[in-house]
Each structure stands twice: as C-alpha cells, then as structure tokens.
C-alpha cells in the first residue's frame, strides 16, 4: 500500500508541475529545485532499499541519468521567460513538449536495452528518472533566469504547496485508516511547505518499507 501512495505523490507532483508550467507561473528558486531534489531522494532511497544495485546495475543507472540530465538541460532552453509584476515568470512551449516526448522515448529505449541485458526493472525507478531530468531543466533554466538580470519571484504562496496538499491528505487518510494505527494527526495549517510535505511523505514511506 505504501508503494501505491508513493506513486500517487510522484504522479501528483509531476503532473501538477508540468501543467502549471504550461499555463505559466512565477519563477522562484524553490519551485525550480524542490521537485527534482524530492524525486531524486525518493528514487534513490527506493533503489537502495529494493534493489541494492551491483556494479553493472549502477553503470546502467548512470547512463540513464546522464541521458536524462542532458535532455532535461535541453528542455530548460525551451520555456519562455518573461517579466510580469516585477519578477520572472516561465511558460512551457510546444518545443518543451517535443523535448519531453523525445526524452521519455529515449528513456524507454534505455529501459528496454537494460532489461534485455538482464538489469532488473526495479533498478530504473521512475521517480529517480524524472527527478534527474527535472534537475537538468532546473539548472539550465536557472542560468537563463540569472542571465536576464530580472529578480526571481518571491517564495510566498507557492503553487507546489497546492500541488502537494491533496497527495498529503490522501496519505494522511490512508494512515489514519489503519496503516499506522495510533499515529496522531499533525497540525494542518497554511504554513506547511511543499518540501516539508514531500519529506514527511517520503519518510513515512521509508518507515513502512523497513517495518
């Protein structure tokens, strides 16, 4: 069950991030770098816990990570950057969508080759792949943003908080329903940040894996 909720968290995070960037959103450092860091941490933890990869596994993982990082960096060249309300905004373009499609296809191709070479499918966690790709995008986009000389958007009322809040509620509901009996529900206020919510869900999933 914990794996299912982890998949829900990852799906909500990724779909929310991509959808908002196509609509257009303020560009701030937290929203740029938190999603890849959270996904990479979740993917790396699951990799170590479930697979305990050997040298050959690590070689395939490294190759897939390099490809994902390169495509992510290329994708970071495609969003439109503009100034609105005194700070930077970003909006995905059709070129961004095209690079997403190509990168997913390339990653799937590497996965097919890895399985044919005898690498277990669990050695390619989707959270890690997407996280590395988003990190490459964040690095390129961050450098582009700095080059404009315009300020980043302030880190108040982050869209990521709204993206992660439904997933956090789903996870809390599942645990209070019996996954972790006797665990008290924490305070739920507007001050909860996206990073706090993601870290709490990831830690809960890690605890369930060890149980």
Q: Overall pLDDT, averaged? A: 76
Q: What percent strand?
A: 5-15%
Structural class: mainly alpha
Give the low-pLDDT segments.
178-195
Strand order of the largest sheet: 1-3-2
Per the principal axes of the C-alpha atoms, what is the gross shape?
Answer: elongated
Order of helices and strands: HEHHEEHHHH
What does this structure look like?
By secondary structure, the protein is mostly helical. The chain has one domain (2-175, 193-210). The chain has seven helices and three strands. Strands 1-3-2 form a three-stranded antiparallel sheet. The model is unreliable at 178-195 (pLDDT under 50).
Features:
single chain, about 70% helix, elongated, about 210 residues, mainly alpha
Task: Set out the fold topology.
Blueprint: H1 2-23, E1 25-26, H2 29-50, H3 55-75, E2 80-84, E3 87-91, H4 94-116, H5 126-148, H6 159-179, H7 194-210
Antiparallel strand pairs: 1-3, 2-3
Helix pairs in contact: 1-6, 1-7, 2-5, 2-7, 3-4, 3-5, 6-7
Give a quick precis of the structure.
The protein is mainly α and 211 residues long.
């Amino acid at each position: 069950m914990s794996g299912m909720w982890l998949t829900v968290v990852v799906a909500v995070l990724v779909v929310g991030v991509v959808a908002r960037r196509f609509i257009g959103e303020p560009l701030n450092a937290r929203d740029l770098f938190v999603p890849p860091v959270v996904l990479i941490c979740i993917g790396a933890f699951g990799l170590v816990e479930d697979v305990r990869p050997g040298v050959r596994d690590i070689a395939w993982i490294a190759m897939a990570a390099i490809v994902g990082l390169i495509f992510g960096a290329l994708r970071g060249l495609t969003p439109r950057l503009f100034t609105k309300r005194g700070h930077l905004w970003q909006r995905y373009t059709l070129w961004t969508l095209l690079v997403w499609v190509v990168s997913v296809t390339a990653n799937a191709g590497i996965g097919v080759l890895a399985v044919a070479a005898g690498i277990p499918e669990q050695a390619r966690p989707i959270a890690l792949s997407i996280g590395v790709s988003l990190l490459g995008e964040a690095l390129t986009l961050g450098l582009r943003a700095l080059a404009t000389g315009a300020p980043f958007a302030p880190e108040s009322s982050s869209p990521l908080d709204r993206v992660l809040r439904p997933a956090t509620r789903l996870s809390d509901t599942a645990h209070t329903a019996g996954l972790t009996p006797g665990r008290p529900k924490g305070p739920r206020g507007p001050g909860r940040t996206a990073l706090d919510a993601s870290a709490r869900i990831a830690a809960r999933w890690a605890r369930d894996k060890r149980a």
